[in-house]
Amino acid sequence: APKCQNSDDITPEEDAPSKPDPLDPKNIAESILRLEDLKSCSSQQLQQKQDESLEVLEQALTILKHTESIISSIRRASVGMVSEDIEAQTMISSVEDTPKAVKEWLAATFTKQIFGRRQTVEPPKFRSIVQAVRASMYVDKITRKASQANITVTPATAMLQEDLNKWDIDVFKYDALTNNKPFRGLFGEVLQRYGLIKRFKINLTHLENYCALVEQGYNMHGNPYHNAVHGADVLITTHNLISSTGFAAWMTDIEIMALLFAAMIHDVEHTGTTNNFHICTSSPLTILYNDRSVLENHHISTAFRYFQNEESNPFSKLSKDDFREMRGIVVEAVLGTDMSAHFTQIKNMQNALFTPSAVNRNTALTLILHCADISHPTKEWKLHKKWTDDLMEEFFIQGDQETQLGLPNSPLCNRLETLIPESQVGFIDFIIIPSMNLLGDMFDALLLVHNEEMDKEGTKKHDVKVKRPWEARLAENRARWKSLVTPKEETPATNGRISEDEGEKQDTKSSSNGPVQKSSSPAAAKQPPPAAKQPPPATPPKQATRSGENGKTPPVGSND
Length: 560
Prior knowledge:
Helix content is 55%, strand content 0%. The protein has helices at 25-39, 43-48, 50-73, 85-94, 100-110, 129-136, 139-143, 155-163, 171-177, 183-193, 196-199, 204-218, 228-244, 253-265, 275-280, 284-289, 294-305, 320-335, 342-352, 361-373, 381-404, 420-456, 470-483, 500-504, 540-547. It starts with 24 loop residues before the first helix and ends in a 13-residue tail after the last helix.
């Protein structure tokens, strides 16, 4: 169809047949493009194309009628599950050959010890077939190396264009190229790759102003770990998780934008101390948020408070419904990064995968952000090692403060006693392996549901087995940490600390850098808890034993 204006959307390779099959994805995509063209036409142009306009509208109406019944059959329902914190604590305490400090850290960090579950939020519905096809048109855009935005190619911009889709992108190098201002170029570039700048009419000047506020918020307290570099790393990892697996094609535009936004702001104005530290010291934030997910609530509140200045609100053109949906996703996803909800979150998704078609959409998005937040053990050794060193230093600074206040040291916060390699092996075995295995299984299951729906309509089936770029790095890093564990009979003289050179001398490849923040499930220990049957798509046991054969799991932690 002739266009009234230039469009950067991808045009289908084949023309729709004269009598279209209403559910043929190519014909649906063609209808979408033609409708978008007509929408941009002036009144005079519409009069000149009256016959064509009627034809396009009739075709669109036919498609919508045929998809109505399908949409109603795949609407998502919340899957409310019971917390498994007691079971998780019992399992942790029963693991052999794990230092007591590591067990205490696991129980203190990854289980709810005081408060119950928060109420679930009604999730948004799954997108219609029309929306799914429209989203699939962005797949090629996601993999393009260069944005179509007219921007000056600085070294930082050139690095993004070349490396943004790489799993092991050196975010520390990128941060240095931006003079510790990573979000101003990064967030706009990521949104542009999904076509969201144009889709939601985002003002680029307001976007840059907002990103500047986020950068200031992240660097407010001078944290070694929870700073703008960590926020940028989680944003890039979230992008790679949904793009490299193809999962973005089955997300709505507002879901993609909300998840990427949540990744960017998930730790803004982090204080460099844990939720438990705030509670024990009765900090102002604890009083404000009633001891519940103190930091996570603060991150969310801060991020939306930045919108109060109109010049710093890039989403001012969103409709009320779109903004409300975006806010709901962001709130739930960031609250899901509270480490104390980890085991409950993992158990709920494991149970939900018994019936993939009923998986709560928001629950799926929350798991993606949670895994991105704790993903540094899945990156190459030099990156993971630096992340670990930075996080341990942040822990030790908190431990120093606790000592000055006459408080007992929190787990892994005593710089004289913490065993870093042991903590890392446990963190990987207890938290990272089961979390990443579950995430991969979730991607497989949800894409399979979509594939089956397409197959019912005669569309050619495609392989839905997603790539898991994290597996090789995770196995290598665990092996390296394992080789550095201090034998029981020896007294560690360096508290498990190792230099970069010492790490490189190990026979096994790769390792990780220590404690990560907010992470997931107990599943990959030597023997997973005696849960009911595994969901059909799940494969955690095999992958868990591959990376954690000995079952010794002394994890290292993260600050909430």
